[in-house]
Design brief:
It is a single chain. By secondary structure, the protein is of the alpha/beta class. The chain has one domain: Alpha-Beta Barrel (TIM Barrel). 49% of the residues lie in helices and 12% in strands. Strands 1-2-3-4-5-6-7-8 form an 8-stranded parallel sheet. Helix 5 packs parallel to helix 6 and helix 15 packs antiparallel against helix 16.
Length: 350
């Protein structure tokens, strides 16, 4: 499938329907929304205009990421803020023609601000429901247990979020400092979550290597891997991921900016796709890295030589890898296929 419109490729990528499976809510706050929160609090003299705020982004390495993340969290002061944040994040995705998103958020990480897990979760659900009413964008929520807090805290968070399972909340994730806090101690938490019906994913193979992915698969029993970038360190692991078709939630720009990969050209996503792994493309923390799922797709075409067939395969992979019900997956794949044909018919095909 080749299309003779090199000068229109960006427009084409904007048009195609999309899926986003690895998106951190707190790292996706639109700058306009964050600026409003800063102005409301009124104690940040360095940020007088939206341009002042824009100049602080994107982060350039893991240190600046941590500092910027902590800084912006100071301006989320009430639980209700999460309703507007969620609404605006999904509005931004809607503008990119994202039809379905699984959004990760970390309610247990707000204890310093005095906010509650229950309150945050309820307002995030309200925000996603409002976005669906206004834009018809479908979404589900995944709670990040944040491995730095320890498995005891993870179990406490699981208890607090369980009443929301099936009411907008669909799964759990294990983010945080992967190379300092391994996944193994969370095995019991994940077992309990699985028994209750939570869907399971975890960050692995980003800042720690192949052993981290082995632990996520073998100890936690995850259904998907957040990143999985460093799977190439163990050919047996790559073979397992291919055989079991365990989806990888890949995020090229963030991997490069945080130093997981030295350059876009050295990112393994191209090779993983060639080897037949189940790869999806995502934006991770788009505000933090000045990216979007649209930009990520554009990078794949312009920098890594992906074809339109490749992009469509990634799109369908996203549906298959999602935690949607099987019937919903089938309907969405049919809809995506129809829209791809319509979009291609509008352009000159060789």
């Amino acid at each position: 499938m080749e299309v003779n419109f090199d000068d229109k490729i960006e427009y084409f990528i904007i048009e195609i329907p999309k899926i986003e499976l690895h998106l951190h809510l707190e790292g996706a706050i639109p700058l306009e929304t964050l600026f409003h929160l800063i102005q409301r609090k009124g104690n940040e003299p360095s940020i007088k205009t939206l341009e002042d705020l824009r100049s602080r982004f994107p982060c350039t390495d893991s240190t600046s990421f941590s500092e910027l993340w902590s800084w912006k969290r100071r301006f989320i002061t009430v639980e209700k803020d999460f309703e507007e944040i969620t609404y605006q994040v999904l509005s931004n995705l809607h503008k990119q023609n994202v039809r379905y998103a699984e959004v990760i958020f970390a309610p247990g990480d707000c204890w310093r601000e005095g906010l509650t897990i229950q309150g945050i979760t309820e307002y995030v659900i309200k925000g996603k429901e409002r976005a669906f009413r206004d834009f018809s964008i479908q979404s589900n929520l995944i709670v990040d247990l944040v491995r730095d807090r320890g498995p005891k805290r993870g179990m406490e968070i699981l208890e607090e979020i369980t009443p929301y399972l099936g009411k907008g909340l669909i799964g759990i994730n294990l983010g945080g400092t992967e190379h300092r806090f391994p996944a193994d101690p969370y095995a019991t938490v994940y077992k309990k979550a699985r028994e209750r019906g939570f869907r399971l994913t975890a960050h692995a193979g980003e800042f720690a290597g192949a052993l981290s992915i082995w632990a996520a698969v073998g100890k936690l029993g995850v259904e998907r891997i957040g990143h999985g970038t460093r799977a190439y360190e163990d050919p047996k692991l790559v073979s397992l991921l291919k055989e079991m078709q365990i989806p990888l939630e890949m995020c090229v720009t963030s991997n490069v900016q945080l130093g997981v990969c030295r350059s876009i050209e050295e990112h393994p996503i191209r090779e993983y796709c060639k080897e037949g792994l189940m790869v999806t493309i995502n934006s991770d923390d788009p505000t933090m890295f000045n990216t979007s799922v649209t930009k990520e797709l554009l990078i794949l075409v312009q920098e890594l030589g992906f074809s339109l067939d490749d992009l469509k395969r990634l799109s369908m992979n996203g549906i298959d890898a999602s935690f949607m019900a099987d019937g919903d997956k089938k309907a969405m794949k049919s809809q995506f296929d129809m829209e791809w044909k319509q979009i291609l018919n509008k352009n000159t095909i060789k």
